[in-house]
Design a protein that fits this description.
The chain is an alpha/beta fold. It has 11 helices and 13 strands. A hairpin with a 2-residue loop joins strand 6 and strand 7. Helix 2 packs across helix 3, helix 3 runs parallel beside helix 4 and helix 4 packs across helix 5. The longest helix is centred in the middle third of the chain and has 18 residues. It binds ligand PBG and zinc ion.
């Protein structure tokens, strides 16, 4: 095997080439912020004020990034997440300002309620026989309203992350009914109840006040169910499927690729913070580890990769600027 491993021959036989256009940058917009706020558990990541987000997105565009995924942190949270579908909500305003300044950037909006509810769960809570829980069908109506409000603001793709049954069909119908047939749905179709979302909950202020998310997100132990979740969303009309987190679930990702739709992989906050923490201590080489993880996620079949390393990786891939080493 070593005949083809001579240094000069290696590029000819590399099977997977990571590109900047494979990457999607997740971004946090804080309605109350007046300057960018560092996120303690995610070194190098910030909550941006509404007035600065478009400028930041422009710098991502200049680095070669062609898609962003927006999360909003609203001033006010309530029981029914009214900030999530407000015409001038934090995400809706951000979409408009980004589209005005950087029209070539694809804007994807995370479609969920947990940043907007006072209890921190991903939709409407009702009190059933087993105690309080996420009310599936009441929450679908909420997702429909959020989806249409994001489309109205100018989002290209909406990305429901609530793991409700029937969410894709419901959102697709609502978008079509409001004249947004051309807005794509990227479903967080196979989303595990992962401990790796810990740093994100600080970043997005979306921790919950009771219970956990295991009555709607998936058990990390289940691969067959993981496939079925994505297959159902494909049948409901999803344009893009997703596996989240990425690194621990490459078997699942690889299986889901056989459905035939594009598949996004989300390298989540905990995956980011683990690499950052080890790199800060000098225990690993950050650039090498990041490029290895992203390449392996692509090798497993991902069409696009949502990663907090997007900007650093873009710089490393194009070699036009030194990032952290
Ligand atoms: C909200 C949402 C979460 C993430 C993306 N959207 C958190 C959660 O489900 O608790 C996690 C992203 C990350 O950890 O980077 N529905
Ligand atoms: Zn949520």
């Amino acid at each position: 095997m070593r005949r083809l491993r001579k240094r000069t021959l290696q590029p000819l036989f590399r099977e997977t080439i990571l590109q900047t256009t494979d990457l999607v940058a997740p971004l946090f917009i804080d309605e109350d912020a007046t300057a960018k706020i560092p996120i303690g558990s995610m070194p190098g990541q910030y909550r941006y004020p509404p007035g600065e987000i478009a400028l930041h997105v422009q710098s991502l565009y200049q680095a070669g990034i062609r898609a962003v995924l927006l999360f909003g942190i609203p001033s006010i949270k309530d029981e029914d997440a009214s900030g999530a579908f407000a015409r001038t909500g934090v995400v809706q305003n951000a979409v408009r300002s980004i589209k005005e300044r950087v029209p070539g950037m694809t804007v994807i909006t995370d479609l969920c309620a947990c940043e907007y509810t006072s209890h921190g769960h991903c939709g409407i809570i009702s009190h059933g026989r087993c105690g309080p829980d996420l009310d599936n069908d009441a929450s679908l109506l909420l997702m429909d309203r959020i989806a249409v409000s994001h489309a109205e603001a100018g989002a290209d793709i909406v990305a429901p992350s609530c793991m409700l049954d029937g969410m894709v069909h419901s959102i697709r119908t609502a978008l079509d009914g409001s004249g947004y047939q051309d807005i794509a749905v990227m479903s967080y179709s196979t989303k595990f109840a992962s401990a790796l979302y810990g740093p994100f909950r600080e970043a997005a202020d979306s921790g919950y006040s009771f219970g956990d998310r295991s009555t709607y997100q998936m058990d990390p132990a289940n691969a067959r169910e993981a496939y079925l979740e994505s297959e159902l969303d494909a049948k409901e009309g999803a344009d893009i499927l997703m596996v989240k987190p990425a690194g621990n679930y490459l078997d699942v990702l690889s299986a889901i690729c056989s459905i035939g739709l594009p598949v996004a992989a989300y390298q989540v906050s905990g995956e980011y913070s683990q690499i950052k923490a080890a790199a800060e201590r000098g225990w690993i080489n950050e650039k090498a580890v990041v490029l290895e993880t992203l390449t392996c996620i692509k090798r497993a079949g991902a069409t696009i990769i949502i990663t907090y390393f997007a900007l650093d990786a873009a710089r490393w891939l194009t070699g036009n600027q030194e990032g952290p080493s």
